[in-house]
Amino acid sequence: MSYAVKELFLTLQGEGVNAGRRAVFVRFAGCNLWSGREEDRAHAVCRFCDTDFVGTDGDGGGKFADAGALADTVAQAWGEAGDGRFTVLTGGEPMLQVDDALVDALHARGFSVAMESNGTLPAHPGLDWLCISPKAGSIVVQRTGDELKLVWPQTGIDLHEIERWDFAHRLIQPLDDRDAAAHQAAAIALVMARPVWRLSLQTHKLLGLR
Predict the structure, then answer these.
(1) Predicted pLDDT at 210
(2) I need a labelling partner for 191 at 20 to 30 A (CA). Which of 2, 80, 97, 122 fits?
(3) Could you state, in chain order, the average pLDDT of each consecutive group of 10 residues for the chain (210 residues)?
(4) β pairing state of 166-174 and 198-199
(5) What is the dihedral of CA 171, 177, 181, 186, to 10 degrees?
(6) Buried (b) or exposed (e) across 101-128, using 16+ Cβ within 10 A?
(7) What is the DSSP letter of 122?
(8) DSSP labels for 156-207?
């Protein structure tokens, strides 16, 4: 299988439980909840995405002929830093492309493999860390994992329902748009009222990282 990757780069994980950890990000092209085109946003299931996942023209991006080629590129991006190899598969929606061959190839090169998904497709069972970020209006089939990251506020989210899902960590992340200050206040209020949740901030944006 070949893989379409928008961008691939070394950075620090900016969000969630693994925030601050050195990571190679692999951003796959394509999503099943929005085309990525602005003219389609108003009619998409997910309308607040702030990520460009269209095409393969980003830094480090491209079309990779097989899993070995992509895993080799991830290893090259990591460099000679030694132990602790960590990669994050994201998108778009990575489960449109992630398969046995890629997960096995990354493991063979010593990487711990994390993924962030919208949960509308079953996650690969060989992942080392799974973060699900549900979107209102979608049908989430992956209701177990390591980390549930809910962007807030979202009209139509049933908190009582998703609090029954089987995740080790539950994080509320303020929606980042022109009303960001109000969303931050709403996220803090939710965590104070429902302490099963923790606050997650996009620290990479605060630090000026990708």
Answers:
(1) 86
(2) 122
(3) 97 96 98 96 93 97 98 98 95 98 98 98 98 98 98 96 98 96 98 98 91
(4) parallel
(5) -40
(6) ebbebbeeeebbbbbbbbbbbebbeebe
(7) P
(8) T--HHHHTTSEEEEEEEEE--STTHHHHHHHHHHHHHH-TT-EE---HHHHH
* Contact (CB, 8 A) for 51 and 205: no
Give me the active site residues, please.
25, 31, 46, 49-51, 116, 204
- Which domains, ranges and CATH numbers included, belong to the chain? 3-207 (3.20.20.70)
Q: Which two tokens stand for residue 9?
A: 């780069």
Rounded to whole angstroms, how far apart are CA atoms 20 and 54? 27
**DSSP 8-state assignment for residue 4:** E
Buried b / exposed e over 37-65, threshold 16 CB at 10 Å, is eeeeeeebebeebeeebbebebebbbebe
Identify whether the C-beta of residue 162 lies closer than 8 Å to the C-beta of residue 156. Answer: no
